[in-house]
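Bench log, entry 3. Co-assembly request; chain sequences pasted below exactly as received.
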Amino acid sequence: MEQKKRTTIVLFSGDYDKAMAAYIIANGAAAYDHEVTIFHTFWGLNALRKEANIPVKKGFLEKMFGGMMPRGADKMGLSKMNFGGFGPKMIKKVMKKHNAMPLPDLIELAQEQDVKLVACTMTMDLLGLQKEELLEEIEYAGVAAYLGDAEDGNVNLFI
Amino acid sequence: MEQKKRTTIVLFSGDYDKAMAAYIIANGAAAYDHEVTIFHTFWGLNALRKEANIPVKKGFLEKMFGGMMPRGADKMGLSKMNFGGFGPKMIKKVMKKHNAMPLPDLIELAQEQDVKLVACTMTMDLLGLQKEELLEEIEYAGVAAYLGDAEDGNVNLFI
Amino acid sequence: MEQKKRTTIVLFSGDYDKAMAAYIIANGAAAYDHEVTIFHTFWGLNALRKEANIPVKKGFLEKMFGGMMPRGADKMGLSKMNFGGFGPKMIKKVMKKHNAMPLPDLIELAQEQDVKLVACTMTMDLLGLQKEELLEEIEYAGVAAYLGDAEDGNVNLFI
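Structure output for the full assembly:
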């Protein structure tokens, strides 16, 4: 039996456009029957945040980080031409016109296609993010688990 | 017969310095007889734009994007120390002094070395870029073609 | 005898958080017995700068670059929420609280674990950085050496 191909993506970036690229590649790879993992670390964790403000106990610094970072994929900015939030509005408008999937839908599709979505526990600690604040049905792991997936991978990307 | 090694680069970034890194690695790999693909997506498409203002019919949003994005490699900014365009001038000056190839020459060299330059059709749509505005002799494809090249690759990078 | 797995990282970015991610992955891979190389190019070279101001002879442009770029890992900014240097202070505070290693310690650990730290000679030239200004016991090489390491790699990342 042939082994399945494997795509492993580190999503470090908290930009809407970069996360879109990550999820489009992930969904494509899943459609081609790869085993796909997206390992969310640092600002990439924001793509996994729930939109709602979940009340959890936090220290002062963690509260500050949590307050300044976008709550969920739909709130993220662009890596270029953000123009204080005007850029994302423009891009979402053209995406709608061209029937391109917005990021929250791409994430949902990835979950339906069994793309493994992992949140990096070490950076969750640093940024003060708690499990209650993140989407359901994601996994929690550290760099060792990432390397386990990546070292046998065909496509490894850091985005 | 041994199979050729393969290097596949996603150029997402529209920064002069990052595009330089992508093209230097691509040209190096081609010189070592790899099959090399650079898949240009999102802001990375700007590296493939012609300098001239090509008159094409566009919608309003597409015109805005087109007007705000740099026309061609030489117009791109730096990812760090851009200083409103002063940074790129400085770096081009030191590059000239050290006989380093400017980005447009690196792109030309890549084409001479048969590096496959691909423009992502999905993001061309989003940003309203049309074939007439991009360099000659490039290919047009989507994420499926990218994955086909990447999954058998030795070196896969997202830049 | 089984061949050792290999992880090769291009560190292009000069951001504290991205360099942290690079060094955490590198140290993890080394702990799992990979042969690990970090190839520092462009702004990533700043992670290898000594903190002290080393007096070397430079041209005018090189002096300007040298003066504007951070001297060493501890001086680097964040890719997001830098807030003129306030962000890095915050993140270092939470790192200390959570017993996470600061970047200079991660670099030291990498050297102890025989991670090969390489400085890209071509971009050293461009940015006017000289060997005297960089850490001891690093290697100097170009894109050919990078490709030699990367083409047999299991995990290749561009950060």
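DSSP finds six helices and five strands in chain C. The longest strand of chain C covers residues 6-11.
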